[in-house]
Every structure is written in structure tokens, then in C-alpha cells.
Amino acid sequence: MIDTLIATLRDNTCTVSGPMSVDEARAAIVDRIAGHALVACNDDVPIPGLAEAVARLGIAVLDPRDPQWATRLADADAGITGARLAVAEPAAIALTAAPGSPRGTSLVPPEHICVVRVADVIPTLADAMQTIAAGDLPSALTWIGGPSRTGDLEMITTLGVHGPRVVEVVLVT
Amino acid sequence: MPKVALFVTCVADQVFPDTAEATVRVLEAAGVQVVFPALQTCCGQPALTAGEPEAALRLARHHLDVFDATDCDAIVTPSGSCAAMVCHHYPELVSDRHADARAVAARTFELTQYLVDVLGVDDIGARLDTTVTVHDACHGMRNLGLGHQMRTLLTATGATLVEMTEADTCCGFGGVFSVGFPEVSARLADAKIGHAATTSAEFMVSGDLACLMHLDGRRRKVGPGSAPRPIHIADLLASGLSGRR
Amino acid sequence: MSDGHAIATPGDDFHERTAHAVANPVLQKALHNLDRRLRTASTSAAAHPDWKDRAAAIRRETLLDLDGWLDRLEHSLTTRGVQVHRASTPADARRVIVDLARARGARTVVKSKSMATEEIDLGNALEAAGMTSVETDLGEYIVQLAGERPSHMITPAIHKTLPQIRDILAREAGTDLAVDREELTRWARGRLRGEFLRADIGITGVNFAAADTGTLVLVTNEGNGRFCTTVPRVHIAVMPVEKVIPRLADVGIMLPLLTSHATGQALSNYVTMISGPRREGEVDGPDELHVVFLDNRRRTLLGTKYEEMLACIRCGACLNVCPVYRNVSGHAYDAVYSGPMGKVLTPLLSGGAEGADLPYGSTLCHACSDACPVKIPLGDMILSLRADVPDAHTALRRRRRVFWSVWARAWSTPRGYRLTTALGRVSRGRVPGLRAWTSSRELPRPAREPFRDRWAKEHG
After folding, report:
1. Cβ(B6)–Cβ(B36) under 8 Å?
2. Which residues contact A147 (CB under 8 A, 6 or more apart)?
3. What pLDDT, in 10s, does the model give residues B89-118?
């Protein structure tokens, strides 16, 4: 199931790494964003101390509680989020909107890093929808399959239309 | 010996009588006795597709009268679309004679369907030394599930079967469409002829004379002359019966 | 002008437009690309054959009690703080939306692709009210700039080649742009990003609306739908009434069925499930969420043989497989909805005022019926409409009726059949439609005597 998820996400032009431990993931992400100036980070990222580790590198971290959040987000180089769950078939990751996890973090910056816990991976969309529909629903639940794309230009896929051009999925145990 | 009533179709009767005769020869070669109810005319499909169900209903009633009164095990026709008219449309069209319509529909079969699915005959003794490709006529394929029967009969003759790309895409005839929208109709014929030509087959075989009339008419007008000759399955099989090919 | 229409089509307009389309080399080149999508879509959908049955059942369950499900949906939405507006006609819908926008002092509106907003001609209404309305789906943006209608519900600019697209975008940009997908996309992204950020209102359609939870489901690949429902303070969703489904869990099947048939994707890149406006403490999302239920004569189909047309989930599969659509594309239909589903919906929703000749432009091959993920008998409906739709060309209709009535009277008796066919042979086949046939085809070689005469001779 995890293998299916990884393979399909890669087919959809995502970069996928892991499964790895939380510590390894923290180091990998910090490594990945080394050249950035500003990174938006949601509360739901399941990696304790990530924001601090990023800040230690001298990279500015945009917190959802920042009063200038919406304006500053437009300048962010990347957005880092967690996920509520992921589905292997069809491969997609579900993000929940909440006070500490704004919608825009996975939409506005050109790069989206998404941390998914292996324990939150479910086999099919049908299974996931049964669970989701039975529980409390967030104001917005967004499923993401990969980078933003269009086929409108002579039916050949081009990436990065409105949403992120680069999507990196980090699986943690 | 099974007894079959030939539902000849107006197109075969008037325009392609050789195909009607070939149909009889093929059925007889399969060990079937053929009778021809002489009072039959037309199933009414042209009027229905023109949007005139009342007119079609007149003909449907006559068709039911003729074939209801005919003592036979099955009613066989060399046209998938005419068989579909009876099987798919009659029960709803002739609503006040629903039981009759269903009874006739239940006994009505297209030629290849009858041979392979009902009689269980794959090989009628025809022998062909040629390459063929198949055009799946729409109504037979989609309303009656036709397709594998023709292919079974063809390969049993020893002919080489090469499938064309988009064998199951419409040829563009479509009844009144062919004269109401002649440009698109011709374009679709060109596409079909083009796909057939790529197979290098000698014949493009189909189970609907209307499709064949349209495709052959287009091929003769604009070519290419090298494209496979459109031919009805009955004509091709019958030609293999006398050992001519 | 085709002489075939004397016996076939009630008018010649659709025919003429298809003839122009077939003769247009640029369009034909663009349409060639459609073949790619055809092949992808059909292979993907084959994976779950039982889904079509289940989806068809869900849609029919909804239609059996459409009003009940709409009431439940309204209740669920209202509980979540969503404002529901019911619009009987396109004019009602336009009025509701323009009033809402005016009341909030809106100047810029961003729109995510929605056939429903095309149906009610919303863009023009907003412009007339002094607002700027920007299409944000790239394909829709291109046709908006070109001043055209979308030609396909999933790929609105399918009729445009890349050089044509470059010309359209470069004109808007006021600078030179390369005929390069990456560059054109980058430019459009930048331009539309600006529109998103200053928009006062985001308007979208709805792919599905779950009655049990009051959740709206939106599907996109680009992310424009997400922007429209995240940045502006107000989100208005235009929902044709048949979009309601009983349970949110149903989307587990409906969604992949929709996307696999629409684009060959197991799931679209983004699916947004919205259950109310932004909540306390959230930093983005709309303050207000409105849903407009649009009827536009849909309820008149309930209880008729055309009721199942309301099961349509707007996937576009019927367009992709239609031999006519593939060769002419959407503009030939001169209607909001094209392809086989447009042939059915256009005359029905307009009460015959529009598109009465569309059902004739079909070969009745039934590829559409086969392709439909919710098993709508499109081919049968197209045929039925030829008889059922009242049309404006009454003189032509009467003439046609007389022709076929005479024909039927003659051919329903063996004697009449024999007489008229003998006449036909004598007149060398001078029948209506002859010119149309011979303009592009040879006639079949004449048969000297009909089969029945030969049989009679042989069998006595």
C-alpha cells in the first residue's frame, strides 16, 4: 500500500522520500530548504521542533498567527504542512483547514512540502470517505495529488499553473 | 433441420440482391432450411431515425403481421441495424402489441449471431485465402453485442484477420445523417477507409449493407484504390463456398 | 445547403456549422489532439466495471426524490452557516449574484470553471453591472480573452492550437511571448495570481453537493478552484439542482468515476470539500459562503423519459467518443452544452427554443451511451428528441411528416412497396437526398431485379 502510494505520487511528478523517522525527516527538510529566504509552516506538521530548526538556519519562518500572514505568504519560497490522511488508490493526500493550518500554505508558494505519517495512510478513497463523512468535517478538506497542472495547451500537461509547481512528500514513521 | 425465415431488408432486396442470395446460400450451407415471407417490406427504421415514429409504427405493424404468421424457428437478417430495430425498438414502439413485438424480437437474429450463437456453427465449409479486416457496424455491436461472431466465422475459413485501429468507430452513415450532414459523414468514411488501408487487407468486412454502401461509395469516389474493398460477410463467405478463392 | 434536410433535419443551421468545422484546417489540427485524451480516458475507466452500476444507482436514487434531497441539502448547508438561494431561471440566478456582489461593493470577481455560470451567462451580467469578471481556469481564460464560448466542458480551448493561444495571451500581455507551454503558463500564472489576490468575490460551480453533511465538492487540476474559495472574502457557488447527492461517502465512487472519464486521471489533482465558510480562528477562507440552487426547467424533466439526463455528472466522456464531436468540436453546436449531452440538454432546457436541429446531427452510433459513467441512454434520447422536440421550422416539419407518412402508407403494403420501388428504378433513383449523397459518394451500382422477384422465379 505504501509502495503503491509512493509509486503513484512519483508518477504524478511528486518527489517522495521516506518512510523515515521524525528526526531524519527534520534533517532532510532542513537540508531541502537551505537556499530559501522565507518558509511558511503550519501547526499540523508532525515533526516537533521543525520551525526552530529552520529558523536556526537563518531562514524566516512564517507562522499562521503572524498578523501579516496573508501578505507575507505571497513571498514565501515554500509552504510546509502536515496531512490528515493519505490514500493509496487513487494516490492523494488530504489536508484539513484549521486555525493553525491555513489553506494557503499548500497553495500559494511555488513549493509545497507535505509530511505524511505512515500510520495515516489508508487503502482507498472509498474507505477514507466513509471515515471522513462520519466524523466532524473541517471548513475545507483539500485532496492533493501532485503539482498544479493543466492540459489546456494542446492537451499536453504543463505544471505549476496556479498552485505549487513542486510538491515533496515526506513519509514519517 | 432448423427452419429460418429470411428478413431480407429493403436495402438488400432492392439494392444488393446478390447479398440476399448469398445470405440464403450461407444459411443453407450451415444446414438450415430458408423460407422467404414474400409479403415483407421494410422494418421502418428510416422513418424512426428521421423522427417520424408514427410512420415507423405503420411499417412495424406490418412487419409483425408478416413474421408472426410465419412458422419458423428463427427470423434471420443480414443487417445488424435492422435486427436492432426489431429487438431494441419494436417492444417500445408497438406498445399496443407489446407481447407480439417481444415474441418476434425474441426470434429475430442477425446472420452471424444466428450462426455462431444460436446454431453453434463456426465453420460453414467456406474456404478463403485472403486477408481481411473488420468494421464493426454500430447498431449490431452496441445493441446486439455483435463482434466476435463475425471474427469467428472469418478465421474458420482460413482467412488472415488483421484488426484495424478504431474498428468500432462509426463509419459515418447514420441513416438520414448521411444526407443531412454529408460533410461529416464523408469525413468519417475517410477516417474508416484510412484505418482499413493501413492493414493492407484485401477486404473490409461488415454486417451492415448501409455502412458498406456508404464506405464503398466514398472509396470509389476518392480512393485510395488500394484500400480494402468493403464487402458484406455473407458475400465473402458465399464466395468461399464454391472454392473460388 | 443539403437537400437531405427535406427528409431529415428540420433546418440547416447545425449542418452548415458542421460543414464549416470540417473544412477548417486549423481546427482539424487542434482536434487531432483529442485522440490522445480518448485513449487515456477509456483505459483508466475500465479498472472498476461495477462502479458504473453503483454510480447510476446513486444518481437515480437522487432523482426519485430530488426535491426531498434538495431540502435536506439546504438544511445541512444552513446549519453550517451557508446562505442558500433558490433560482428558478437564469435571470433569477443572475439577479441574486449581481445583487450580492453589489451589496458588498465588489469590483473584481474571479471565476473557476463552471458550465452552470455559462448557462446563466453570468460573466456578461457582472460586466454589465460594472464589475470585472475574470475566468481563472487557463482554458477558460484563453477563450474569455478570445471572446468565445468554451468548446468543451473539460478542456475549454480544445479548438485552439498553441500558436493561436500564444497570440491571444501575448495580445493581453502587451509583450512578446514564445510559443512555449512553460513560458505561457508562467505568464498566465503571474497575471491571474494578481487577479486572485485583489478579487472581492470568488464564484465557482459545484461538482457534487452532499445532502447529509452540507458539503460542496469541487474538482480542479490547476488550483484555481482552491484560490477562488480561499482568498476572496465571499464565495458564491452556482449549483444546478441535479448536483445533489445523498451522502458525502458517495463521492468515494463518484469522484474517481468523474475524473477517470473526464481526463483519464484516477483522481483530479485537487479536490476541495467545503463544509461552510471559514471558522473562528482560521486565517484564510471566505467569510461568507452562498450557494445558488439553479433549476432552469430541470424539474420539468422529472417523470419523463428524459429524466435520466439529470444524472449527468459533466465528465465530457460522451464528447470525447462522439464521432461527430471529434470532427467538429463544441462551437458548431452554438450552445452552452455540446456533444451528445448537449444535443439532449439544449432542446430540453430551452423548451425547444434552442438546438432543435442538434439531435439530427448524430449517427446514432451509441458510443455516448456506452461511454457514460452513469449509464444515461443518450443515443435513445437523441433519437426520441427528433420526434419530441417542438421546433420553429414548422413548414419544413410538416413537409417532412407528409413525406414519411406517404412513404409509410406505400411501404406498409407489399403492393405499395413494389410499385414505389419500381418507380424508383425507372426514375434512376431520383429521391430526396440524392444530391447530398452524390456530392461526396458514388451511388451503388443498380440492381436489375430485386431479390424478391428472383426468389419468386426460383421458388414459384
Report:
1. yes
2. A12, A13, A14, A159, A160, A163, A164, A165, A166, A167, C269
3. 999 999 999 999 999 999 999 999 999 999
Task: Convert the pLDDT of each residue in B147-203 to its tens digit.
Answer: 999 999 999 999 999 999 999 999 999 998 999 999 999 999 999 999 999 999 999
Instruction: Count B/C contacts: CB-CB distance under 8 Å.
Output: 207
Q: Would you kindly state where each structural domain of chain C is located, as residue ranges?
A: 3-40+317-389, 65-296, 413-459
Which residues numbered 190-209 in C keep a CB inside 8 Å of some CB on A? 192-193, 196-197
- The reply to whether residue C275 touches residue A139, judged by beta carbons under 8 angstroms, is yes
> For residues C447 and B8, is the Cβ–Cβ distance under 8 A?
no
Put simply, the answer to whether A158 touches C185 (Cβ < 8 Å) is yes
Question: What topology does CATH give the domain C65-296?
Answer: Rossmann fold (3.40.50)
Residue where the block lists cell 450451415: B30
Interface test with C, best of A136, A139, A149, A169 (most C CBs within 10 A): A139
Q: Which chains touch A (3 or more CB pairs under 8 A)?
A: C
**Chain B contacts of C14, Cβ < 8 Å?**
181
Please list every residue in chain B whose beta carbon sits closer than 8 Å to the beta carbon of residue C459: 36
Residues from chain C contacting residue A141 (CB–CB below 8 Å): 272-273, 275
Distance CA C359, CA C383 (A): 7
Question: Among residues C13, C18, C342, which one has the least CA distance to residue B182?
Answer: C18
* pLDDT above 60 (res A56): yes
The ipTM value here is 0.94
- Which comes out higher in pLDDT, residue C407 or C460? C407
On whether the CB atoms of residues B77 and B19 are closer than 8 A, the answer is no
Q: How does the average pLDDT of chain B come out, rounded?
A: 94
- Residue of chain C whose Cα is closest to the Cα of A149: C222
Q: Is B74 left (phi over 0), alpha (psi -120 to 50) or beta?
A: beta
For chain A, list the domains and their CATH numbers.
Answer: 2-148 (3.40.50)
Measured CA to CA in angstroms, residue C397 lies from C62, C370, C405 at distances of 37, 31, 12
